[in-house]
Amino acid sequence: MHIGLIAAKSSVAEFLKAFSQVFPHLEIVDAAGDFPDTDSIWEWKDTHEEFVSASAWRKDNPGKTVYLLWQDGPWTLLFDPTYVLPASDKELAVLSNEMGPVLSFVVETAGGCACFWCFEKGELRREVINNNTEMQQQGAPLPEEAGIDMDQYYMDETEALWSAFGISVYESMSSPEGCQAICVVDHTDYSNL
C-alpha cells in the first residue's frame, strides 16, 4: 500500500477554494473533471506531471505535481502520492480552521510506515505514527478508534479507521464520478538548498 490522503468534511469546490489560501505557494495551472473512466484520470495525471529533481530545480523549471480529489459522501478526499501534503502539519492545522476536522493518512509499505493525523480548530488533536515498528502516539484516542488496535497501526488499522469515519477510499478512487484533477506548480524558492 502506497497512499497519501487528506480527508476534510467539505465539497470538492470548497476544498479547492481553501486549498489556494492554505497552500498559496502551489499555483493551480490546470484542472480537469468529468472523466469518462478511471484510466483517463491516471492518463491525465501522467501527462500533466513533470518531475524535476532538486539539483535541476530552477524558478523557470519548477516541475508540476498532480493531485486528485474525490467527493466521498460528506468528505473530500485528496490523493497525494508524494505524501508531502498529508504530512504538512502546519497547513493542515490551518485547513482545519477553515473546514472543520481534517484527517491525514500516509501508508508506505516499502518503508514499513503508517501515519495518521487528525486536526481540529487549528490544532493537532491526534497523531499515530508507526515508523517501521517504532510506535509513537500523541493526543487522546478518538471515538472512531474503538476496537482498532492502534498500538499495531498499519494497513489493516488504516482501512478500519477510514471505515470508522465513514470514508470509503477504494470505492471513491475506483470511480471517475466526481473526480477533480489539479496540476500545480510549487513556487517555493529552493535555490538556497
Question: Which SSEs are present, and which pair or pack?
Answer:
Blueprint: E1 2-9, H1 12-22, E2 26-33, H2 38-48, E3 65-72, E4 75-79, H3 89-99, E5 102-108, E6 113-120, E7 123-131, E8 134-138, H4 155-164, H5 169-173, E9 180-186
Antiparallel strand pairs: 1-4, 1-5, 2-9, 3-4, 3-9, 5-6, 6-7, 7-8
Helix pairs in contact: 1-3
What key attributes describe this structure?
193 residues; alpha+beta; nine-stranded antiparallel β-sheet
Sequence stretches where pLDDT stays below 50 over 5 or more residues: none
The total of beta strands comes to 9
* Envelope shape: globular
Q: Count up the domains.
A: 1
Q: What is the helical fraction, as a range of percent?
A: 10-25%
Question: Which H/E pattern describes the elements?
Answer: EHEHEEHEEEEHHE
Overall pLDDT: 92
- Strand-pairing-aware structural class: alpha+beta
Main β-sheet description: 9 strands, antiparallel
Q: What's the helix count? A: 5
Rg is 17 Å
Strand order of the biggest β-sheet: 2-9-3-4-1-5-6-7-8
SS strand fraction: 25-35%
**N-to-C terminal Cα separation, in Å?**
31 Å
